[in-house]
């Protein structure tokens, strides 16, 4: 086998691509794996711009891939962090109902969490909430003890160490520009040369649909980017939050609503909201990429989403341009916070797959096509679930890998 020939090429060195590559090196140690990444370092996009939460699995429809892989993935992530000395804290979180309309939804979440196999869930009254989070207020809350925090950029670095130690290669600054396929071989053209393999796994996150097209397939959904913006709680005001304080989410949307997260560094932030991004890697409100914008606005699915959710979208947009509106949403759970407590923080862009009929694809989606496997929709909690996703993706590709 020549220097440019591999058994498997994985596109994308985010938490998912790296977890998939790691699982291949574990299950098929004799296979040569190449991971190609367009940036000069790993975890440059979603995997390095997230809330760092190890989600419990409470939100997801029982039986869905998200539910199964989040619950098993969270346990695997905690174990992985423990084994490799990566800072993490299983601090638990509270989901707080602040209006009577939210109470039935909070109870639904409790039932859903139990159906998904979570242990230690407890519906608590306002006094118990105050013992756990002294500054939070609500009519009722749900305590989720298995939620935690870590740093997924550090997790990715450890994945790279293990992949490299197993003899496989992570090649950065290697943007994929073309893919040629025959029945037996795939050639991937990159900024650092052409490489061939028998199997290709597409884990390109915000560009997974474009890589799918490049490979000659027709993705069943298009990626629409949603930016999430954070504010940081300043100085001593961070003491208002002990761990994680979340609202009751609207079950019609895949996003969780702005919340407080005490990160593994001790910093407390609030967010993220969810607004349409004008560029797939548009971290600032002013970032605009005409190709990305055209890809969204010329898509029938985008307009159907816009028609269906315009009211919700307007509220998110208002919270994006008005700090007062953002803070107001947070005050319902933490009445003591005021505008001056917050300074602008980071941001991230979510890859949300949208079908032509305007559905926001909810579950993880892995689409095989002969000797290529496309990982097309892996939104939150995919960082939490990455090790479990790696297992399922490799199960799905196992036949291709054994040939
Ligand atoms: C704001 C926000 C908050 C979140 N919070 C959480 C959380 O608390 N907990 C949780 O579990 N999940 C969270 N998530 C979700 C989680 O971060 C993502 O689901 C996960 O990181 C997806 O990983 P990925 O590897 O698919 O994507 P990415 O990390 O985006 O990786 C894809 C990689 O592909 C590369 N690539 C793209 N095109 C090419 C090309 N042509 N050639 C070569 N390389 C290419 C990109 O450069 C990128 O590095 C959050 C996401 C966001 C945006």
How would you explain this protein's 3D organization?
The chain has 403 residues and is an alpha+beta fold. The chain is built from ten helices and 21 strands. Strands 5, 6, 7, 14, 15, 16, 17, 18 and 19 form a nine-stranded mixed β-sheet that branches. Strands 9-2-1-13-21-20 form a six-stranded mixed β-sheet. β10 (176-181) and β11 form a beta hairpin. The longest helix is centred in the C-terminal third of the chain and has 22 residues, at 300-321. The chain is globular and about 65 Å long. The relative contact order is 0.19. The mean pLDDT is 95. Residues 11-17, 36-39, 44-47, 49-53, 55, 175-176, 203-207, 211, 228, 272, 348-350, 378-384 line the site of flavin-adenine dinucleotide (FAD).
The percent range for strand residues is 25-35%
Proportion of residues in helical segments: 25-40%
Bound ions, cofactors and other small molecules, one mention each? flavin-adenine dinucleotide
Q: Which spans have pLDDT < 50 for at least 5 consecutive residues?
A: none
Measured between the Cα atoms of the first and last residue, the distance is 16 Å
Which terms would index this structure?
single chain; 403 residues; alpha+beta; nine-stranded mixed beta sheet; six-stranded mixed beta sheet; 10 helices; 21 strands; binds flavin-adenine dinucleotide
Brief summary:
The protein has 403 residues and is α+β, with helices and mostly antiparallel strands. Helix content is 33%, strand content 25%.
Write the layout of secondary structure elements.
Layout: E1 8-11, H1 15-27, E2 33-36, E3 53-54, H2 65-84, E4 88-89, E5 93-97, H3 102-115, E6 122-124, H4 126-132, E7 140-144, E8 148-150, H5 152-165, E9 169-171, E10 176-181, E11 186-190, E12 193-197, E13 199-202, H6 208-214, E14 222-233, E15 244-247, E16 259-262, E17 268-271, E18 275-276, H7 290-297, H8 300-321, H9 323-331, E19 342-354, E20 365-369, E21 372-377, H10 386-402
Bound molecules: flavin-adenine dinucleotide (FAD).
């Amino acid at each position: 086998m020549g220097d440019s020939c591999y058994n498997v090429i994985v596109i994308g060195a985010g938490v998912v691509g790296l977890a998939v590559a790691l699982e291949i090196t574990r299950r098929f140690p004799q296979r040569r794996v190449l991971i190609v990444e367009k940036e000069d370092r790993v975890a440059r996009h979603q995997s390095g711009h997230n809330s760092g939460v190890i989600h419990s699995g409470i939100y997801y429809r029982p039986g869905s891939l998200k539910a199964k892989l989040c619950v098993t993935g969270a346990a695997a992530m905690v174990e992985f962090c423990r084994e490799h000395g990566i800072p993490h804290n299983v601090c638990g979180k509270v989901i707080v109902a602040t209006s009577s309309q939210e109470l039935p939804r909070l109870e639904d979440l409790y039932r859903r969490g139990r159906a998904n196999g979570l242990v230690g869930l407890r519906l608590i009254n306002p006094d118990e909430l105050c013992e756990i989070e002294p500054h939070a207020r609500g009519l009722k809350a749900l305590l989720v003890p298995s939620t935690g925090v870590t740093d997924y950029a550090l997790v990715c670095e450890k994945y790279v160490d293990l992949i490299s130690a197993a003899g496989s290669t992570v090649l950065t600054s290697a943007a994929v520009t073309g893919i040629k396929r025959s029945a037996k071989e795939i050639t991937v053209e990159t900024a650092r040369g052409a490489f061939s393999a028998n199997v290709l796994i597409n884990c390109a996150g915000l560009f997974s649909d474009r890589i799918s097209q490049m490979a000659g397939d027709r993705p069943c959904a298009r990626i629409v980017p949603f930016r999430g913006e954070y504010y940081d709680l300043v100085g001593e005001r961070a003491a208002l939050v002990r761990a994680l304080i979340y609202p009751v989410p609207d079950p019609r949307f895949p996003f969780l609503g702005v919340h407080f997260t005490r990160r593994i560094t001790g910093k407390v932030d609030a967010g993220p909201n969810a607004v349409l991004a004008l560029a797939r890697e548009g971290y600032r409100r002013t970032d605009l990429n005409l190709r990305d914008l055209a890809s969204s606005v010329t898509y029938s699915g985008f307009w159907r989403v816009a028609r269906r959710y315009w009211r919700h979208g307007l509220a998110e947009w208002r919270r994006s341009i008005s700090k007062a509106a953002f803070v107001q949403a947070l005050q319902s759970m933490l009445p003591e916070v005021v505008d001056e407590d917050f300074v602008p923080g980071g941001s991230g862009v979510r890859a949300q797959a949208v079908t032509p009929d305007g559905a926001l694809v909810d579950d993880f989606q892995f689409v095989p096509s002969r000797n290529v496997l496309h990982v097309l929709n892996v939104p939150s909690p995919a960082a939490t679930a990455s090790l479990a996703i790696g297992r399922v993706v490799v199960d799905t590709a196992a036949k291709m890998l054994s040939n």
